[in-house]
Specification:
The chain is of the alpha/beta class.
Amino acid sequence: MSVKVNSIGLKGLEGYLVQVEVQVMEGVESVVIVGLPDASLKESRERVLAAMHTMGHPLADKKVIVNLSPAEQKKNGPLFDLAIALGVLKSGGFVSVKLPSDTAFIGALSLDGSIVPVQGMLPAILAAKRLKLKTLYLPYDPNIPEVELEGFNLVYVSSIQDVLDYLSGSQPFSFQRPSRILEDHEIRYERDFRQIIGHEFAKRALEVAAAGFHHVMMDGPPGCGKSLLAETFTSILPPLSKEAQLEKVSLYQLADASNESPFLPPCRSPHHSSSAVSIIGGGSHPKPGEVSLAHRGVLFLDELAEFTKKTLDMLRQPLENGKVTISRAHSTVTYPAKFLFIGAMNPCPCGYLGSDRQYCTCSKKQVKAYQNRVSGPIRDRMDILLSLKPVSLNQNDLTGNETSEEVRKRVQEARQRQFQRYGEQVTNSEVPFERLVKASPLREKQEQMIKHLCMKQGFSNRVHIKVIRLARTITDLKGERDISDEAIWEAFTLRKRRQKGIGNHTVHSR
């Protein structure tokens, strides 16, 4: 007799229903798994055999055939262990429990029959709900945040015997609550804007970037504060929404990466020696890269010009589309990658082009070659360009500096205005342009002014649109309804602000 048990398969973050069909028959002791299983799934045979023996149900003189449907979809991971074991017990006549058609089972087996957590359980939970299943049996994992899904039950089990007891009705359901989401007042940031001396224009620019989720590129001599500003930037970002928290935890689970708090926006800062695969994602079984781990947060690339040109150019798709598609011979996987990009670089190889304190020893050719490591298309995708200079500690102090909490409050209010205007949690940098101008139409005089300034600066159509998006965000920070002329001028200032000598590759000589 063949038995069908529901489980969940994963293709990136996308889950799909897998029917585990099991048939036990007389023959030489063996377990055969078909349906395009990968190596980790083939090893389920030994785990299931050992678990059956431990439970007192050895499969001597039994041949077990396991079919994973849909057969054309490659399966990976040990998520199906529990479903296979239940199918073997039912098909072999060892138990007589009923396996409901609206229930699925996920989890890996230990040799003693206990059920242990595996990677990708949170995406599997969300997929089971989307597939309109009623109940999901799974092992308890303290790293999964609390998930409240209406009309959907999560039953946490520690062994196969627990599952059998629940299904037979001999033990009442146990609904354990996963780890609690942190509250806002429990969040502690390592850095604060109040500790940064000077750089008032840069702080304002970063506030605009946080409010509208705009990309930023900074340049300046060594020690001028680029890294400090970028590392402090996350302290002014609003906490993640419930949906964003689940996305973050799902991606970190799939990548097997540590996650300090699901409540905070992620901040990833890979070293410039990192490979393109580690940043974009990939592998024989594609896993999320740094751009996906930075989803809903910040990707900070320090020493931007030291990254390989190939790696930087691979950022074009996620910067534009907010996702990464990785194609392999056996499958194509798409991961979300909506991140706020911050790049920091020196203006030249020696680092002192445009500096008032030290001479630049680079030739014009060296400067041009160095800056060309960051291609035009990447620069064109930046919303804000900042050129920083060292701050004199003698002329500046901490007096009057705003705290990150004060700035974050304004950013949250600006975000809320955007959510109300568009009817969903989308920012000015992400919303389709047609929808933005429909909600915030420009006056004819403003349109002519923007066109004239963009033509004068030689801006592309993409930058033209980015200027309007910036102006909309600046207006939201002011709490105004219509885009003002002052907001447009400030947007142009944020886009074209360059240090003297850097934009035209002028080299100081003495």
